[in-house]
Amino acid sequence: AGYTDWFLPSKDELNLMYLNIGQGNVLGLGNVGGFAGYYYWTSTEDDIYYAWRQYFGNGSRSASTKHFNLYHVRAVRAF
């Protein structure tokens, strides 16, 4: 849509998305982000081989190998 400020959220930013607009539903708004119960990549690396992911089914987070794993992504814009 002509925007150039998209980025992949960090593990802490994605966790806040899970809690507030995803299945965590802390705000009581429901899943307004439309997140599926899948793993989503974050921009946070653990080392050169691993990056952090978050599972939107239950909120768990862990590092996973960057190679061989296909997970969803949710790009966000700066605000």
Your description of this structure?
The chain has 79 residues and is an alpha+beta fold. The protein has one helix spanning 11-21, and strands at 6-7, 39-45, 50-55, 61-65, 76-77. A hairpin with a 4-residue loop joins strand 2 (39-45) and strand 3 (50-55). Strands 2-3-4 form a 3-stranded antiparallel sheet, with helices on one face. 14% of the residues lie in helices and 28% in strands. It starts with 5 loop residues before the first strand and ends with a strand. The model has no long low-confidence stretch (mean pLDDT 92). It contains 1 helix and 5 strands, in the order βαββββ.
Quick tags:
single chain; 79 residues; alpha+beta
Please describe the topology of this protein.
Layout: E1 6-7, H1 11-21, E2 39-45, E3 50-55, E4 61-65, E5 76-77
Antiparallel strand pairs: 1-5, 2-3, 3-4
The N- to C-terminal Cα distance equals: 16 Å
Strand content: 25-35%
Q: Figure out the total of helices.
A: 1
Overall, the morphology is globular
Radius of gyration: 13 Å
How can the largest sheet be summarized? 3 strands, antiparallel
What is the strand arrangement across the widest sheet? 2-3-4
Instruction: Give me the strand/helix succession.
Output: EHEEEE
Count of β-strands: 5
**Helix share bin:** 10-25%
Question: What class do helices, strands and sheet pairing give?
Answer: alpha+beta
Mean pLDDT: 92
Query: Low-confidence parts lasting 5 or more residues at pLDDT below 50?
Result: none
